[in-house]
Amino acid sequence: MTATVTAFPWVPPFAQGFVRDLRIRWALEEAGLPYDVVLLAPGVTDSDGYRQWQPFGQAPAYRDEEVEIFESGAILVHLAEKSEALAPKDPAGRARVTTWVIAGLNSIEPFSVNVATLDSFHAGQPWVEGYRPVATAILEKRLTSLGKWLGDKDWLEGRFTAADIIMVTVLRELAACGILKDFPNLDAYLARGEARPAFRKAMDDQLATFRENAPA
C-alpha cells in the first residue's frame, strides 16, 4: 500500500521550504517507500473528518496500511521502524534514533524557534531587543552541547538516520540569523544534510507545489 502524506498547496514565501511535510517526504525518499501527497483544499483542515485524523488541523498527517498518525516526529519514528535506511534494525539502535528524534524536537527546536522568529514574526516590537540576548544565550548553550556530541562525526549516530532528518530540519530554521557560523561542525552537518539527493528531491517537490498553486 502506498503511504499518504498531507500537505498545504501553498504557504507564504517565508514558510516555503520549512513546512514539516518536508521531513516526511525526505524520509520516504531516503527509504525508497512509495507515497502520495494529498493537498489540503481550503476548509479541509477545519472539517470534522480531517480533525479526526489531525486534531489540530495541521500538516502533515500520515497513513499507511498499518497506522494513521500525525506529528512529524511520531511519523519519522514509525518510518524508522519500517526501513533500515532510517534506523538500525537492532532495538538498541532504533532506541537511540528515537531518543535523538525527541531530542531534536524538545531540546533544540523550541530554542531555535525562539531565536528564528524574533525577526520574522516580532520585528519592531519593543521587547525583542531586550529578549534577544537571553534567547540567544540559551540557544547557544544547547548548540554547544549538540556540537560537542557531533564532534567530527558526519551524523549523530555515526550513520545517517531519521534523527538527522529532524536535526537538520531544525537547524535549517537558524540559517537566516547566522548563528551557526559560530558552530562550524554544525554548519557543515547542515550542509551535508541539505546535499543529500533525497533531501533535494523532497525540497524540489514541495517548492514545485507552492509555485503551481501560488495566488494570481
Order of helices and strands: EHEHEEHHHHHH
What structural category do the secondary elements indicate? alpha+beta
Per CATH, the architecture of the largest domain is Up-down Bundle
Q: What radius of gyration results from the CA coordinates?
A: 18 Å
Number of helices: 8
Per CATH, the class of the largest domain reads Mainly Alpha
The number of domains: 2
- Residue share in β-strands: 5-15%
Please give the alpha-carbon distance between the first and last residues. 36 Å
Mean pLDDT: 96
The largest sheet has its strands arranged as 2-1-3-4
Descriptive report:
The protein has helices spanning 21-31, 48-53, 72-82, 91-120, 128-150, 162-172, 184-195, 197-212, and strands spanning 3-7, 35-39, 61-63, 68-70. The N and C termini lie far apart (36 Å). The protein contains 8 helices and 4 strands. The chain folds into 2 domains: 3-86 and 198-212, Glutaredoxin; 91-196, Glutathione S-transferase Yfyf (Class Pi), Chain A, domain 2 (Up-down Bundle). 56% of the residues lie in helices and 7% in strands. It is α+β, with helices and mostly antiparallel strands. β1 (3-7), α1 and β2 form a beta-alpha-beta unit. It has a 4-stranded mixed β-sheet, covered by helices on one side.
